[in-house]
């Protein structure tokens, strides 16, 4: 459990530093400036999700195989060249989006910010998590913590002395380059290389077509639901409204993603290791899928319940009075993140069977539901903030269809007891969010938050520590855990 402790402590510290950076940023940026930042970040995430993430999942799926064959370093060098090309594509996309939005091209400072964000952030997202995949969890946690600390430091000085949106993004990217370089050096030092390796294509066309392109399409649809809609919202309701919506949704993604990343960093490598061990045994793969679904799914429901309970205090503390209206978007964003996270767990079935094209229909369904719901909200003339419900309806449709399609691929088992406890926590969180009136006094607000959270500890114990699937996942060890 020492490895899990390292990962947990590291990710919690990273999360706290990330939230501190949000607090600093909202202290300097107006909602309008935050809305402009949200647009630039949406371009960076387009490149990360659509162009880089599918390749990253391919790397994850074959990391242990390449390590055993002594070709991992060479494959990663080829991937670094691909990231450089992706950064150039990001600049072109920035020009296109800017022209469509305002009819003018972005200035060189914005283009530089996008180039560095796409290249350096994705270098970090490749090498630092890969250390954990290889069994170097302690080093990965340390570098994640270093990167987050540098982000806070660099962004603070950028806001204090320059105070512009592109400079913030450049500072953010520069901070993440440092741990990326250290992680790359560590991997090159400790990963064995086959001297007889003959250079070949990073991946062949058949693999790219059958594995990566479907993932890219799915990621593109997911990108629209998470980030792409920002351009439509900014066009119709302005940057200030977008800033409030983006802050609420971003806080939901970051806080939910904090716990999700801890679980993924620890359990996903073990899950993929199990798949490699049981490649020829379909029933064993179904058991592995059932274990991770019944472990992570109820935890995500519990997490959503806790965050919905504490939604108002979180936004009050991190956003301040200028952003207090973002509380509504944060609460809806939690439910959207719940749908996304559970759908991601279900989608692992597509990687087991290596038919990633089956991930496309759920995201396509979500896009259709988003537009239909948006039109209905416009027709009945509801306030602009209810556009968030369009995203929630889309998320619910996505997770329902994802479950149906993935269950047909891998006949995994749903353990109803754990899921019912999770839904109980979620229902409690929704009820408290709607009915409880919070104090405006900071001391009372903290006390109320503490007292209301106590009952969730009981549910946490039963969902996590009495879960037999946890012990089954812990039995699978990684190659380098004892060497580090």
Q: What report would you give on this structure?
A:
The chain is globular and about 65 Å long. It starts with a helix and ends in a 10-residue tail after the last helix. It has two domains: 203 residues, no CATH class; 272 residues, no CATH class. The longest helix has 73 residues. The protein is mostly helical and 484 residues long. Helix 1 runs parallel beside helix 5, helix 7 crosses helix 12 and helix 8 runs antiparallel to helix 15. The chain contains 16 helices and no strands.
Helix count, DSSP H or I runs of 4 or more residues:
16
Which percent bin holds the helix content? over 70%
The major pleated sheet works out as: none
* Number of domain units: 2
What oligomerization state is this entry in?
single chain
Radius of gyration: 22 Å
Task: Note the beta-strand portion.
Answer: under 5%
Transmembrane segments: 12-31, 37-59, 80-100, 112-131, 143-162, 168-187, 208-225, 237-263, 299-320, 326-348, 360-380, 386-406, 418-436, 442-465
Protein name: Lipopolysaccharide biosynthesis protein
Membrane topology: Multi-pass membrane protein
Organism: Parvibium lacunae
């Amino acid at each position: 459990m020492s490895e899990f402790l390292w990962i947990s402590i590291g990710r919690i510290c990273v999360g706290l530093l990330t939230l501190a950076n949000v607090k600093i940023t909202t202290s300097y940026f107006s909602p309008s400036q935050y809305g402009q930042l949200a647009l630039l970040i949406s371009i960076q995430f387009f490149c990360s999700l659509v162009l880089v993430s599918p390749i990253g999942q391919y790397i994850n799926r074959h990391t242990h195989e390449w390590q055993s064959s002594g070709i991992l370093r060479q494959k990663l060098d080829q991937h670094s060249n691909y990231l450089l090309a992706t950064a150039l594509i990001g600049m072109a996309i920035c020009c296109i989006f800017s022209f469509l939005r305002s009819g003018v091209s972005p200035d060189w400072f914005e283009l530089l910010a996008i180039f560095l964000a796409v290249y350096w952030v994705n270098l970090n997202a490749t090498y630092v998590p890969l250390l954990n995949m290889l069994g170097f969890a302690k080093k990965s946690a340390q570098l994640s913590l270093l990167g987050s600390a540098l982000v806070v430091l660099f962004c603070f000085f950028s806001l204090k002395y320059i105070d512009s949106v592109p400079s913030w993004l450049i500072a953010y990217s520069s901070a993440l380059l440092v741990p990326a370089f250290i992680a790359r050096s560590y991997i090159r030092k400790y990963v064995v290389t086959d001297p007889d390796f003959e250079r070949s294509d990073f991946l062949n066309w058949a693999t790219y077509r059958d594995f990566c392109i479907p993932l890219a399409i799915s990621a593109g649809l997911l990108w629209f639901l998470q980030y792409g809609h920002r351009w439509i919202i900014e066009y119709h309701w302005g940057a200030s409204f977008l800033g409030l919506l983006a802050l609420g949704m971003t806080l939901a993604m970051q806080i939910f993603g904090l716990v999700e990343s801890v679980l993924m960093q620890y359990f996903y490598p073990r899950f993929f290791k199990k798949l490699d061990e049981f490649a020829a045994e379909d029933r064993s793969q179904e058991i592995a899928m059932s274990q991770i679904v019944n472990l992570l799914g109820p935890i995500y429901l519990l997490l959503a319940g806790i965050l919905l309970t504490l939604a108002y205090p979180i936004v009050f503390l991190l956003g301040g009075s200028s952003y207090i209206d973002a509380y509504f978007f944060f609460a809806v964003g939690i439910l959207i993140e719940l749908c996304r996270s559970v759908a991601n767990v279900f989608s692992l079935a597509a990687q087991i069977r290596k038919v990633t094209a089956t991930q496309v229909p759920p995201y396509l369904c979500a896009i259709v539901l988003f537009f239909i719901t948006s039109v209905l909200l416009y027709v009945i003339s509801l306030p602009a903030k209810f556009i968030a419900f369009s995203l929630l309806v889309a998320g619910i449709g996505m997770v329902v269809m994802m479950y149906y399609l993935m269950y047909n691929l891998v006949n995994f088992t749903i353990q109803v007891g754990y899921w019912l406890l999770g839904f109980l926590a979620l229902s409690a969180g929704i009820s408290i969010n709607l009915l409880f009136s919070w104090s405006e006094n900071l001391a009372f607000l903290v006390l109320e938050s503490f007292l209301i959270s106590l009952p969730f500890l009981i549910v946490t114990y039963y969902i996590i520590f009495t879960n037999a699937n946890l012990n089954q996942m812990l039995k699978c060890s990684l190659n380098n855990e004892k060497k580090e």
